[in-house]
């Protein structure tokens, strides 16, 4: 049952409704929006408060037929935004990319990866400390030392950290080291763990069980929400079907389906969803296109030598190329500015006009090469493995290009042209950074 309070309801009215609900042995979950307050009633036999609509300040009482109450859009009509270390996720904010290795293998490996993905524009760092694996003989993670390495990487790069917790007894330990607690696919039905993370003060990323329906997934989220933690993020990571061409079947239709059922933010994990490096990029783009709030991408300095899931991990260069495409998609999502009116061109012989075009083309080619050379000098001046490009500066450049209205090209066309120049400059910087990284590694 959902109790919708009037916009004119006072705090006293809300308190009286909550007291009445709890007085009948039910739970009351108060959600305050910009315009009104909504109270979720949870428990057995909610008909005990069927007459609550007569209390002062109550505008409407809605019966929720779904088994999940707190996760439903009826309980919380406005989309939820979860903020992690200052990074907002959900509510139509910018696409958030979470990147890092499947497992933390060493402090140096994690530090190099964190620096790289951070320079490419990732907003959060992921890394496994405890790895539930199908085989007991495969690498299970470094445990608590890995959590300490993740905390150290966060201190250096400023990237908030997400890692999977597998045991309810470890929640307090994770709370001390990470910013987001991840509940993996295998533990989606671990109700003891769900209640434990529900009592944490940290946000929770809940992955879909590989054999779970959407309703079962939302019911797992209900366990966390009903335990007191309202900061829950859902993550589609693929389900098991009869198809064997991919590790899992990435159910991207779940994203728009969930949009109609829940207010919680939704992320997509194309790495586990496909299990193949060459499919991660296309499915990441598709996930962004269907409206995901964020993506989880596995990245490793040397995927073939990774201790877990190397076949689905992107190299540094591959991750950089994917981020370029994601930036382009973000720009295409925006409403394009109206096209500028073509400038008047005085009549001239076609041969003369083509000659002038050739001169401009030659100048453009020279300027593009000069820009790439300057970008390379920036990379060399920085040293280390960090990229020389600055995401904020590049966005400002693209915005200036989009608003340059003195010619016949539209804002979208200008953005695409300058975006291509930026991608080429980044490619030059990445080659230099990769060469420097290989030079640092022992023979």
Please describe what this structure looks like.
By secondary structure, the protein is an alpha/beta fold. It has three domains: about 1-60, Phospho-2-dehydro-3-deoxyheptonate aldolase, domain 1 (Alpha-Beta Plaits, 2-Layer Sandwich), CATH 3.30.70; about 80-330, TIM Barrel (Alpha-Beta Barrel); about 340-440, Chorismate mutase (Chorismate Mutase Domain, subunit A, Up-down Bundle). It has 13 helices and 14 strands. The strands form three sheets. An eight-stranded parallel barrel has the order 7-8-9-10-11-12-13-14, surrounded by six helices. Helix 3 (about 145-155) links the parallel strand 8 and strand 9. Helix 9 (about 275-290) runs parallel beside helix 10 (about 315-335) and helix 12 runs antiparallel to helix 13 (about 410-440). The model is unreliable at about 330-340 (pLDDT under 50).
Task: Write the SSE topology.
Elements (H helix, E strand, L loop, with lengths): L1 E4 L5 H13 L3 E6 L4 E6 L15 E5 L19 E3 L2 E3 L6 E5 L6 H14 L3 E3 L17 H14 L3 E4 L6 H7 L2 E4 L7 H8 L5 E4 L6 H13 L5 E5 L17 H6 L6 E3 L1 H5 L2 H13 L4 E5 L17 H18 L16 H33 L8 H12 L8 H30 L3
Helix pairs in contact: 2-3, 2-10, 5-6, 9-10, 10-13, 11-13, 12-13
Strand content: 5-15%
Helix content percent band: 40-55%
Instruction: Enumerate the spans where pLDDT stays under 50 for 5 or more consecutive residues.
Output: 331-342
Number of domains: 3
| Assigned CATH class of the largest domain | Alpha Beta
Number of helices: 13
* Total E-strand runs: 14
Q: Give me the CATH architecture of the largest domain, please.
A: Alpha-Beta Barrel
